[in-house]
């Protein structure tokens, strides 16, 4: 079937000269919901960040440093995603150069989250299985080195897409306007295979890390006569990280999900794309504050002073 007439070809729907678009009331409602969710999450994330930086006790704990790094990373990712969503309704097409910046920021921050989850799982594994060496292995300095390595791993493979595009596309392309999707900007066919290969290796590494740390903590919990409660909490935390990883994985298979859903519900591409947008890109951002901001007793004790009592300007509470 010719791709330009295939009703299941989502690329055609996006790029056609007469694109299918929502009516103004529907578009307004969708964007209102998206922005409202962003404001709620931004408030929660802001209180979490304020809680961290106003209480020095968290500065010296690698666990909370990795946590706040993920919160800030997710906040940036969500902001970029919402901006792209709103701009796609207001302007439909935007300048390619600006689109490149938005796309790369979204890709980098999306890739960072699973690696951060792997780092947090390893920290919990060391805390439970090697408690006497935890303070020596998991130092503040090494935690910041790990964060730098995470960003190097996230940026290096995908920045090559920009270099390839700069080398293969004429200058006029970067002054033109496109519907801001990754495949519309970084169009070289070889990049698709590179993405697929890297994504497989990337998620396989994180998945195996989470499985390994969970099993080791599970076995350690059975052997421990003391801190069984701590081991149990560590297992639950790693399981939640696994759930976050699976939700992050959805962002990489989202195009395939949309095609399958469009085959089941033909003619509803706008509703399908909006639904997957909420589930794939927004819903996972609720989990990070819940895992540590709510489940963690120490952080919850401080956070409650900010998010519940609205005391974001009160002096930091000192530990006794």
UniProtKB/TrEMBL annotation:
CDD domains hit by this protein: 7tm_classA_rhodopsin-like
GO CC list: dendrite; plasma membrane; synapse
Lineage top rank: taxon: Eukaryota
Keyword annotations: Membrane, Transmembrane, Transmembrane helix
Spans through the membrane: 32-53, 65-84, 90-110, 143-164, 200-224, 245-265, 271-294
InterPro entries xref list: GPCR1_Superfamily_Member, GPCR_Rhodpsn, GPCR_Rhodpsn_7TM
Protein name stated in the entry: Odorant receptor, family 90, subfamily A, member 1
Species the sequence originates in: Lepisosteus oculatus (Spotted gar)
